[in-house]
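Predict the assembly for these two chains.
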Amino acid sequence: MIKRVVDFFGDEEYANQRRRLFYLVLVLIVIADFLVPREHAVYLWDRLPGWSAVYGFLSCVLLIFVSKFLGHQGGLMRREDYYD
Amino acid sequence: MIDFAHPALLFILGTLPIPFLTGSIRKVYLLLIPALAILAVVTVQPGSYGAAHFLGQEILIAKVDKLSIVFATVFTIMALIGTVYALHLPRPGQHVAAFAYVGGALGVVFAGDYLTLYLFWETMAFASAYLVFAQGGRRAINAGFRYIMVHVTGGVVLLGGIILHGTSTGSLLFGPIEAGMGAGAYLILAGFLLNAAVPPLNAWLTDAYPEATVTGAVFMSAFTTKTAVYVLARAFPGTELLVWLGTAMALYGVIYAVLENDCRRLLAYHIVSQVGYMVAGIGIGTDMAVNGATSHAFAHILYKALLFMGAGAVIYVTGQRKLTELGGLYKNMPLTVALYMVGAFAISAFPFFSGFVTKSMVIAAAGQDHRALVVLALTMASSGTFLHTGLKLPYYMFFGTDRKLQAREPPRNMLVAMGMAAVLCVAIGVFPQPLYALLPYQVDFEPYTGSHVTESLGLLMFTAFGFVLFLKALDPEKTISLDTDWFYRKGARLFMWFAEKPLARYEKAVSDVSETAALPFLYGAARAGLRIDLIGVDAIVNGVAQTILRGGGTLRRLQTGVVTHYALAMIVGVIVATIVFAVAWR
């Protein structure tokens, strides 16, 4: 049972099914976010449906590229024998 | 201390028989001690135990209240899980070190005064260092020495703070520091922040943990930083500085995790990030924020240990630790993958996993306290957490390019330990009430609202979307990252250069001076000495020498050249010496 689930996420033959399932989940989450009641909205963005999806995506992209920029251009990443 | 069995003593005294036990008796014994400790913590009554006087100071060995009980509960549970994970080790050394380490952590958690705290604090540092040294090899030994030197320095700073604070307030009892922040309080804070791995004092953690043994790193991931969180929550709740340090470190860890290639170092950077939530919660200082920090520490110990166990299992089985050399293991290690992913979902705060009910409490507390920037930064860090621990690490470790590594599931005790942690991660997520009941303050927080669930899922799944789109940008690279340990690793080299170049030059200058100025004087003195020598001393020496020469001539006539004579003379000598010793000497 566990092996089959893990194989579903690893095996090449399920790649298309995986992709379709993933996009379906994304769409469902955004739809659900439009439907849920929001009583405790403290900040402006709490009232915007779909905000967390946008923020999650932007955070992800920002973190990847800012970090890699700091690593390559900022000189944080060095050869493995740097300290030897 | 009649009605209170101190769990720290249970562990520390419990180390003594370990080296003398073997086989299954040792295994049973190793499991018995943490089990007894869990029992002791569950049955403990709040109160003060072991009050005494020492050097005119009030000493309180154990102060038990709700805050210390939460931490002691998770520490003892974690000790049991960690011991199960390490049960296959053939040698007793690491078990002894791990028990002493856990004992130190429990001692800190119950310490009622600063001297007791300091004593257990240092016990932790030295016991945990052994878990790095036990790995062997040049890298681990070097990292172990750096680890111990940083912690000894931090310990000295802490002790200095304790003494200053004690003399200014007249009491060494450990509690909230309220009477203004003096120099002593700042030194204590610095000592605590070092163990909490707050940047720029974080590098010891990410330097040493990945070099520790597979089983040792599991213990290390749980105790040092979380005892630091405990002492911060005890002494410095509501300190504004902590809000910003915590928020910054939550992002700091995530940024470094992008660059990291070593699987356990990536996880170590996520300890820094996750402890940031706790430090920020303590800094906010409201009831809800401290509750959030405490519960997050509880959940964090379990899921982080699970993640370290998963990565450790991979290292144990394959011998590889770099993401660039791992991949395609899911075929042979499906159970490890599944258990690891439970930890990954828990740290990423997916609904029905432990992080969801604890991390959100910290963020909600920041929102209630009108700190929009903190809310946004911590939410961004949550996205980064899932990006690395939930997506990047498992993708490159278990899936990704198949490196054709020989792999199998790890030994059964490792899987059982991972299973125990995984069950708790899910149980806390599904039934948060027992954990909430343990927290120091009344909990007025409901994690499972519709909008909270959809917002969390939106944040996480669209992070996954970003991951899928920019997968190529995340490919691990064969590099290491510079962190603040650069200063002392390169600094040590500067010191050596200083010793070799300027100091050596100074030494040469001194010898030059002695050659130009001191030597002529010495020559003069030597000539004067020679004259005295020739006229006075030589006459005496010559007289003595001539006397000896004459004596030698007489002796020569006595020498026969027959070995028997010499041997007889020697025997006579020995007898004479014995008689002299036996009669005259006494």
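The mean pLDDT of chain B is 91. The longest helix of chain B spans residues 502-558.
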